[in-house]
Amino acid sequence: MHDAEDTQVLAESITRTVQLSLGATRSFVSASLGFSSAEGVTTTVSCSSPALKAGQVWKARARGSSYTYKVKKLQAYKPRVGPTKWRTVSTSAALKAYNPYASDISCGL
């Protein structure tokens, strides 16, 4: 066992992932989900570890939000009477996005 507490400090760029389909753009999907379309977040995280046994590693990790969504492709059409309406032409399979937080961390083994 280590007697002293160690501090784990990491400065890194974490990738923000956004899956796309049916012609949707990264900026459109990101805005719809409520976060920036930038590809990465640079963060510095640190935390102190408790005494560890030989071979154990204490890690600091940035946290974030995961999203699952579908993209719908719509087509406008004009009925004989009334305003223009929209119909779904196709729907994507389930897609995923991950938005890391720049200042929220999780520490553990």
In short:
The chain has 109 residues and is mainly β. It has one helix at residues 26-33; strands at 7-15, 17-18, 40-48, 59-69, 72-77, 85-91, 95-108. The protein has one domain.
How many strand segments?
7
Query: What proportion of the residues is helical, as a percent range?
Result: under 10%
Indicate the radius of gyration in whole angstroms. Answer: 22 Å
| Measured distance between first and last alpha carbons | 14 Å
Which structural class fits the helix and strand makeup?
mainly beta
- Figure out the total of helices: 1
What oligomeric arrangement do these chains adopt? single chain
Main beta-sheet annotation: 3 strands, antiparallel
Which stretches are low in confidence, meaning pLDDT under 50 for 5 or more residues running? none
How many structurally independent domains?
Answer: 1
Strand adjacency order, main sheet? 2-7-4
Q: What is the beta-strand fraction?
A: over 45%
Walk me through the structure.
- It is a single chain.
- The chain contains one helix and seven strands, in the order ββαβββββ.
- The two termini are about 15 Å apart.
- It has one domain (about 5-70, about 95-109).
- Strands 2-7-4 form a three-stranded antiparallel β-sheet.
- The protein is mainly beta and about 110 residues long.
- A hairpin with a 7-residue loop joins strand 5 and strand 6 (about 85-90).
- The mean pLDDT is about 80.
- It is elongated.
